[in-house]
Amino acid sequence: MALKNVLALVVLLGVVGVSFVKAYDNSESNPERYNPGTTGNLYNDYYGNKCTNVEEIVRNVTYQYVSANPTLAAALLRMHFHDCFVRGCDGSVLIKSPNNDAERDAVPNLTLRGYEVVEAAKAALEIACPGVVSCADVLALVARDAVFYIDGPWWPVPLGRRDGRISNISDANSLPSPFANVETLKKNFADKGLNTKDLVVLSGAHTIGVSSCALINRRIYNFTGKGDFDPAMDPNYVKILKERCPPTDFTTSVDMDPTSADKFDSHYFDAVYQNKGLFISDSTLLKDSYTKFYILQQAVLNLNTFNDDFLDSMVKLGFVGILTGDQGEIRNKCDRIN
Length: 338
Description:
Blueprint: H1 3-16, H2 19-23, H3 54-68, H4 72-85, H5 115-128, H6 135-149, H7 182-190, H8 196-203, E1 210-212, H9 217-221, H10 235-244, E2 253-255, H11 267-273, H12 280-283, H13 289-299, H14 306-317
Antiparallel strand pairs: 1-2
Helix pairs in contact: 1-13, 3-5, 3-6, 4-6, 5-6, 8-13, 8-14, 11-13
C-alpha cells in the first residue's frame, strides 16, 4: 500500500473516530427487522402452499433471459431500485399509461430495460398459481436472480408485497439524480428509511451496466460554462471519455465501471477512489467522511465486504414503502391495474 494511502487512511480514521462504527451498524439478521416506514411485514415462506415453486419458476425464466443477454442483470437491478424509490416496492414502475404519464414515462425511466423478463415470469406464475403472486414480488426476485446469474451476491427476498394501483410520472422526481451531491443523496436515502451505508453500498451497483454520453457531456466538456471538465475527475479518464463521447454524441453507451462493467465486483470503489467515478453522484461520495471511509475499506484496505454489505442493503431496500395485507392488489398483468 502506498505511503500516502496509509497516511490518508490514518487521518480519516482520526476524523471519523469511534462513532463511525455505530453509523454503519447494519447488523440485523432477521429480515422482518428491516422495515423502514411500513405497516406490514414480509416473510420468506409467504406463499407457502399457495404457490410452492414461486422462486424456482421465477429463477428459471430469469436465467433463460439473462443467459441470452447478460446485460439484463444490470437493467433489472436498476428497475427494482427505481421501483422501490418511487412509492415503494409496489411494482408501479411496470404500469403502462395510454397517456404516457406513468412512472415508466419519466425521463429517468425511459432507459429502463427488462420489462419482458418480469412479464414472462409473471405469465409463468399465472399458469402455476393464478392470482397469487404480486408483480412487486416478481420484480424483487427477478432482480436478485439476474445478479446472481452473473456471479453477483445472492440475498434473501422475503415475500408478500402487494401491487400498487397508482403510477404517476411526477412521482419519479424522488429518484436520486446522477448530478446530486452527497448531502442530497443522503437525504434521498434517509427519506426511504435507508442510511449512509446503504447509500454507498447500493451505489456500488454501478459496478455493472452502462450509461450514455448524454449524462456526462457537460461534465467532461463544459462543467462551469467555460469549456472545462469537472476538476473532481482524473484528467486521463476524461481524455478516455472524450474519445468515447465526441461533443455532439449523446447516444453512445459508456461503462459505469471502467474496468469490469460486465462483472459484479468491488472495482467500482477502486474507480471512485481514483477519481474515475462516471457521475457526479459517484465522485461526491469522496466528500463525505463516512462514504469515503467505506470506499477506502474496499479500494485501499481490500476488506472485501462489499458483497455481504450489498445483500444486507438489498434486503432493506426491498422493504421500502411496501404494501401488504389488503392494501393494493395482485395484478393479473404487470403492466396494467386490474
